[in-house]
Amino acid sequence: MLQENSLTITDVKAAYNRLLGISQQTPVLTSRTVNELTHSEVFFKCENFQRAGAFKFRGAYNALTQLSQAQKQQGVITFSSGNHAQAIALAGKLLNIPTTIVMPDDAPAVKQTATRGYGAEVILYNRHNTNREELTQSLARDRNLKLIPPYDHPQIVAGQGTAALELIQEVGELDFLLVPCGGGGLLSGCAIATKALSPKCRVIGVEPELADDATRSFYSKTLQTVHNPNTIADGARTPSLGKITFPIILNYVDDMVTVSESAIIRTMFFLWERLKIVVEPTGVLAAAALLEGIVTVPVARIGIILSGGNVDLTEIYNLKQ
Ligand SMILES: *Cc1c(COP(=O)(O)O)cnc(C)c1O
After folding, report:
1. What tens digit of pLDDT does each residue of 113-128 get?
2. C-alpha 212 – ligand 1 centre gap (Å)
3. Which residues span the membrane (predicted)?
């Protein structure tokens, strides 16, 4: 059994080998404009080009491959505001494992449609009056399904860490790595990989100002929560870090910062116009921290994880009006 407190680069490398030929080795983009603006060398790891549109496929596939034969036959269940749902649904389809997804009824339409498109059963709930974890646990018991949570799971963390592993493998050691943070699966996995492969690199987590629980937890060293934050970054609306991710973040992450809603929107448009790529609000958190000058890192080699690209463009269009 993989113990969360003993997660290391070995687990990230094992996940990398399981994902070889299955997940996308996503492109790393650079931009002269960005390098000039920041007086640095910036490498964007484009997980918006990952299968199912976000890095979540890495953890989901890694976790599903590790189930027992009996669990694979019974199927899995999860709760998610979207990208983990699609990732589990796709991984289940590839591995022939039935999937059930519990999703808020206000999750972006593209995400609901895509999840059903991969063959998952979708169960919607109202996030203002339902505890999604309790609902999911009772469904798991009743239907004998294995619960695969979106971030607080050792194989999910190890899988997400392959994004940083690939980036450092491709471009070499970094001075800084900026990573979006919701429940902290991506950040903790990337921090484990980075501290092993580029030990001098400072790892910085970025979350929305309106959902700053991880930043407060990091500074107070006690788990802080946030309730239904009204941020456009729907992948970071998680109530808190997890039992597994919080200690890893305290151990390996160097700093946590927050970005405003308007910074998130400006950065989406900047990446769209300058890099010609579509990145969802949660996906631009790390880029926003750099481009808006919240993290200042002159003359450095900086990695930025662009974590996903599943955006409801009609919603963004309405924002601009
Ligand atoms: C889930 C998600 C995040 C946050 O990941 P955590 O592992 O929960 O911290 C960031 N960006 C995107 C696009 C996501 O889907």
Report:
1. 888 999 999 999 998 8
2. 14
3. none
